[in-house]
Amino acid sequence: PGTATALRTGTGATAAGLAAAALDLSSPYWAASTAVSVQLGTDARATRTRGLQRAVGTALGVLVAGALVWLDLPVAVEVLLVAVLQLAVELLIAHQYVLAVTCITPLVLLLVHIGAPGLSGAHLVGERLAETGVGVVLALVVGLSLVPRAASRRLPGAVRTTTDAARAAVP
């Protein structure tokens, strides 16, 4: 039953990664991981929602990241901010995806900035926006055209099976 979902997700991730590489973006894996995260929705509506949340969260996150890099904070402060952002991501990811992405983006860009302080904030922000844009667009194209309802068709049966199993387990 997961074949259709695997096909859709794998195709989206591959297309996004290859497109980002063809565009000579520095981190094609970010486009691929964006495509995967957008396609985690169970149907077309959820895929569109995840795409919007990923785009908005990244846009807000690059504003935060750009400001933090522009401030030219000491490395110790940046490391502390990375820890705070990681905690925020863990607390938000399951229920507030757009806010989690708003924290993931500056978290990742601060890590890159710590590891490669010579890269400008503008470069980091531009690359992240481009990689996310490629990932979201290709995830939506693939996710909405290639077996868009694969998971939603299985969900009622899975819920029914789980409910029956739970009822059988309770005396």
Indicate the topology.
Elements: H1 3-22, H2 28-38, H3 44-70, H4 75-92, H5 97-115, H6 121-145, H7 150-169
Helix pairs in contact: 1-2, 1-6, 2-6, 3-5, 3-6, 4-5, 5-6
Explain how this protein is built:
The chain is mostly helical. It is 82% helix and 0% strand. It is built from seven helices and no strands. It has helices at residues 3-22, 28-38, 44-70, 75-92, 97-115, 121-145, 150-169. Helix 4 runs antiparallel to helix 5 (97-115). The two termini are 31 Å apart.
Say how many strands there are: 0
Strand content: under 5%
Question: Termini, distance in Å?
Answer: 31 Å
- Please report the number of helical segments: 7
Please state the average pLDDT score.
90
Helical residue percent band:
over 70%
Contiguous runs where pLDDT drops below 50 for at least 5 residues: none
List the main descriptive attributes of the protein structure presented here.
mainly alpha, 7 helices, globular
Short description:
The protein has 171 residues and is mostly helical. The chain has helices at 3-22, 28-38, 44-70, 75-92, 97-115, 121-145, 150-169.
